[in-house]
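in:
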């Protein structure tokens, strides 16, 4: 199919550009690694668990979700740079599918996330993290959907505002409430009821609960299918939105 071929062409170019300048992958792994080494040990007394291994079982899934959100949510800056360089403008004269222009870039973010996620998971194993392969694969599926969702949102907003000066504060304003109400760094089990009620409106809180259940060997809980369903539906909607914005930009 043409759209698959076009998506592959865009994806291949984006991966090639990434490999030529892999600093973002390195930075994307280094920051979560610092959280893993310097923050996770502090969770043992905070969570009331007996061992550091139990703390990592709670913290690592949240860390991976944070990586999926923030790694993809700020990808729009690269798109604005391409717009300024005339890359998007030159797409006007090509027969490449407008949907493929978006999907190829978002798939790059998904692949980058999965590479980073696998590295973080492997690094956490010596610290006591334990997870079954089939469960971690489902968890990576949810992380991939989150990355696709956030990448599509970032691209759509970037095409709207067309300026890093406007995009940066906008994304920062949105990302902070998401981080604080999703229970990413600390579970919301001991949070006040009003905060739990707010978290129910945060789709990423459902995803965090689902990924944590998967990492703790409970793939059959409601949190897993609810998280996959919510994130999956939002991903479809945001991809359609971003594709329309691409169509407007290269019409």
């Amino acid at each position: 199919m043409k759209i698959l071929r076009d998506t592959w062409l865009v994806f291949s170019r984006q991966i090639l550009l990434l490999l030529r300048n892999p600093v973002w992958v390195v930075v994307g792994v280094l920051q979560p690694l610092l959280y893993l080494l310097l923050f996770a040990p502090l969770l043992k007394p905070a969570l009331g668990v007996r061992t550091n291994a139990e703390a990592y079982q709670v913290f690592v899934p949240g860390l991976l979700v944070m990586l999926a959100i923030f790694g993809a949510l700020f990808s729009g800056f690269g798109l604005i740079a391409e717009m300024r360089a005339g890359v998007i403008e030159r797409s006007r004269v090509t027969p490449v599918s407008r949907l493929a222009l978006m999907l190829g870039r978002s798939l790059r973010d998904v692949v980058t996330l999965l590479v980073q996620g696998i590295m973080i998971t492997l690094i956490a194993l010596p610290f006591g993290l334990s997870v079954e392969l089939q469960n971690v694969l489902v968890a990576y599926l949810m992380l991939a959907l989150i990355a696709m969702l956030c990448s599509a949102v970032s691209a759509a907003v970037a095409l709207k505002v067309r300026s890093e000066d406007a995009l940066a504060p906008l994304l920062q304003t949105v990302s902070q409430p998401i981080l604080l109400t999703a229970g990413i760094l600390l579970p919301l089990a001991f949070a006040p009821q009003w905060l739990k009620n707010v978290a129910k409106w945060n789709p990423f809180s459902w995803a965090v609960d689902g990924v944590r259940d998967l990492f703790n060997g409970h793939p059959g809980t409601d949190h897993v299918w609810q998280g996959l369903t919510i994130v999956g539906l939002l991903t479809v909607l945001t991809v359609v939105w971003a594709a329309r914005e691409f169509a407007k930009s290269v019409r």
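note: The chain has a mean pLDDT of 83.
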